[in-house]
Design a protein that fits this description.
Layout: E1 21-22, E2 27-32, H1 42-55, E3 59-63, H2 84-101, E4 106-110, H3 113-125, H4 137-140, E5 148-151, E6 157-159, E7 162-165, H5 179-187, E8 191-193, E9 200-205, E10 211-216, E11 235-242, E12 247-255, E13 258-261
Parallel strand pairs: 1-6, 2-3, 3-4, 4-5, 7-8, 8-10
Antiparallel strand pairs: 2-11, 6-7, 9-10, 11-12, 12-13
Length: 262
């Protein structure tokens, strides 16, 4: 049979290797994101950590937007809050704290759109520095020293058969009612995402009787940021039990410091 890969000897193209990142074969994973350091929510993080310590998690997935990168963004900025050194210091301290509190877990750090602002800033302002590994974000935050495997390039993370996205990998703009339903319409597959700062769930059943569920997870940042002081967001995280054939998602809100399963 003819090899159709390049039957007509066409010029070679740039092709990115886009493959899913497979998490450990089974376990109980704490999934949270949208921390937006240095605008993180201390009370919310404390409630989540306390819950995670009690429920015996085996892995941690920081699912994007750990950093806000406020100073590097293209948006208007309050000069009083423009302190990139503090953002880096606070982020490193938080990663160190997770490593200290959960020494026996496998730990993963996925880049979200805010985390990617760092590399885009370098591409625009200082492309000459991009090739120096000391300037890569994963090295600046000492991820490896704190036992965090970094997941970049908008790769899907697989917990067994369950895909986990940050949410910026697909166009979620215009979501106004139920983020989980929008996620379903985009992927047509059971899936979990962060990015929209709201806890929600949507359920479907296809023509073959297969049950499909999608979940969006709340955030861990300030509840009333300057750019959106009035919003419908909620603090939250998820704990996902999974193996190669099964998964169960426990999606939690944090209200007034109390963890509530949605």
């Amino acid at each position: 049979m003819t090899n159709l890969e390049n039957k007509f000897n066409l010029p070679e193209a740039y092709v990115d290797d886009y493959t899913a990142f497979q998490m450990p074969n089974e376990g109980r994973c704490l999934v949270f994101g949208d921390v937006h350091v240095p605008f993180h929510n201390v009370r919310g993080l404390s409630a989540m950590i306390e819950h995670a310590l009690m429920c015996g998690i085996t892995s941690i997935l920081i699912n994007g937007d750990f950093f806000d990168h406020f100073s590097l963004s293209s948006f208007d900025k309050d000069p009083d809050k423009k302190d990139y050194k503090k953002e880096m210091q606070d982020g490193r301290m938080l990663l160190e704290k997770f490593a200290e509190l959960f020494p026996n877990t496998e730990r993963f750090f996925k880049f979200g759109n805010h985390d990617e602002w760092y590399q885009k800033y370098l591409w625009r302002k200082a492309p000459e520095l991009w090739g120096d590994p000391d300037f890569r974000l994963e090295n600046r935050i000492r991820a490896n020293e704190n036992g965090f495997t970094v997941i970049k390039d908008k790769r899907v993370v697989m917990l067994g058969k369950l895909p986990v996205l940050h949410g910026h990998e697909i166009n979620m703009r215009g979501t106004t009612v139920n983020p989980a339903r929008t996620l379903y319409l985009k992927v047509k597959h059971s899936c979990v995402c962060n990015h929209l700062h709201v806890s929600s769930q949507h359920n479907e059943k296809d023509i073959d009787g297969k049950h499909i569920s999608t979940w969006s997870v709340g955030h861990m940042g300030t509840e009333h940021p300057e750019y959106a002081p009035i919003n419908s967001w909620n603090l939250g995280f998820a704990v996902i039990d999974y193996d190669k054939d099964f998964y169960e998602v426990s999606n939690y809100k944090i209200i007034n410091g109390k963890v509530i399963r949605t």
